[in-house]
Amino acid sequence: MGRFAAGSVTLWFILSGCTSVNVEPVVEVQPLVPLVVVLPHHDLVKTQRQSLLAEVSQRSQPETIILLSPNHFLAGQAAIQTTDRIWSLAGDTQHIFPDVSVINQLVVGGLVSNEDSSFNNEHGIKNILADLHDAFPTSNIVPIILKDTVTVTQVEELVTGLEGVCSDCGVIASVDMSHYNPAAVADIHDIKTLRALRTLDGVDIWKTEVDSPPSLAILLAWAKQQQVKQFVLTGHTNAGGNETTSHIMGYYTAGEVADYPDQLTFTFAGDMMLGREIGYQFQNNRFQDLFSNFGNRMFWGTDISWANLEGPVSDQTIIQDRQPNDLVFLFSQQAISALTYLKLTTVGLANNHT
After folding, report:
1. Is the pLDDT of residue 9 over 90?
2. pTM summary value
3. Which of 223, 105, 205, 222 is nearest to 156 (CA)?
4. Is the CATH number of domain 36-253 3.40.50.1980?
5. Alpha helix locations (H) across the chain?
6. What CA dihedral angle connects 93, 176, 105 and 114, to 10 degrees?
7. Nearest to 173 by CA among 210, 120, 199, 209
8. In 3D, which of 249, 258, 253, 148 has the Cα closest to residue 206?
9. Which parts of 250-321 fold into alpha helices (H)?
10. Phi then psi for 319, rounded to 5 degrees?
11. Fewer beta carbons within 10 angstroms: which end of the chain, N or C?
């Protein structure tokens, strides 16, 4: 307060600043980062999936989400398919809209085929949609399903195409991990998968025992393209039992790619007889009946899968004697198909009788 006098008049005045200003607390705004996520479509872990999407949605709200899934039922014609349908949710009260512009450009470029009916029963897409809408209510989607016949070249061309037509796209790979194996085997196979995810190994990812290696290959390529190279694991679960499904959940963020660890996974199998009575019974259909119940996932997913053969394999068809009077074994060329089907990387001839 001050006083100013001029003749007989005295003026009082008050000097003050802004006396009624509300000062808001400073809030640090987190910059948006690219959305690059892997999650399961297995609803056993639906709650964990929802938590992951809620977490990443705080950091990313892309205009469009590329949703990748295996083509579980090998539906349709093309190896890589999409649809431009509008997805109805919650009794038709909510909708997810397609990014028609991106879809049309991919179709015109010959990178995907628009085959809507293939998506009618595809749970790799449909199981994710409600959770996706909750976390990203304004995002459009480009759903893509991939058969296991997709090649490395097709994946590379698709990623290049996406780079050209996506100005603000995130990628989510809806992939379940190890299938139909005992839980202990699934845990070993997941070591290789996690290593490929963490090291962005675009070669090893194709050798992982998951339900869609091509989807994960696209995910890794997109993470590299978007310069988000650090994988953050948010969940690793296993359904347990003799025929389990395992789940890996996580996202990529800014940071350095992980160093390649000093580790090696392997599966060893004992003597394998593909001649004599077994060859006589099964070689004519390339041993498909012999391994139909066993499947081909036990030896798939480790760095080395090794089995010992009871005899060498010929490059010709060998008529197998059902009751020979000797210990000389020679398997027919059809045995190679069986070994390839089992995804064995190595065979030996230790302790054979030839």
Report:
1. no
2. 0.89
3. 222
4. no
5. 46-57, 100-108, 123-135, 152-165, 183-199, 213-225, 276-282, 334-341
6. -70
7. 210
8. 148
9. 276-282
10. -70, 120
11. N
